[in-house]
Amino acid sequence: MSGHVHDFDPISGWCSGCTVRDDGRHAWHGDIVQAGPDYTPDQIASFLERTRP
Predict the structure, then answer these.
(1) With left for phi above 0 and alpha for psi between -120 and 50, is residue 51 left, alpha or beta?
(2) What is the pLDDT of residue 1?
């Protein structure tokens, strides 16, 4: 059996095939099982700016 290859959404960061996000956050049935990093508002604004064409 081959391993799962994550397909992360460039905006949300969530994998389209499982419950993991590109920052390491893991959710299960709506609950966060493993928290990802805490981003500052400036970091989030920077991420959003990089996604714009």
Answers:
(1) alpha
(2) 46
Tokens coding 37 = 């990093």
Using DSSP's 3-state secondary structure scheme, residue 1 falls into coil
Dihedral, 18, 12, 5, 19 alpha carbons, nearest 10: -20
End-to-end CA distance of the chain: 38
The per-residue pLDDT for range 27-39, each reduced to its tens digit, is 887 788 888 878 8
Percent helix, percent strand, percent coil in the chain, to nearest 5: 20, 25, 55
13 Cβ contact list (under 8 Å, min separation 6): 21, 22, 23, 25
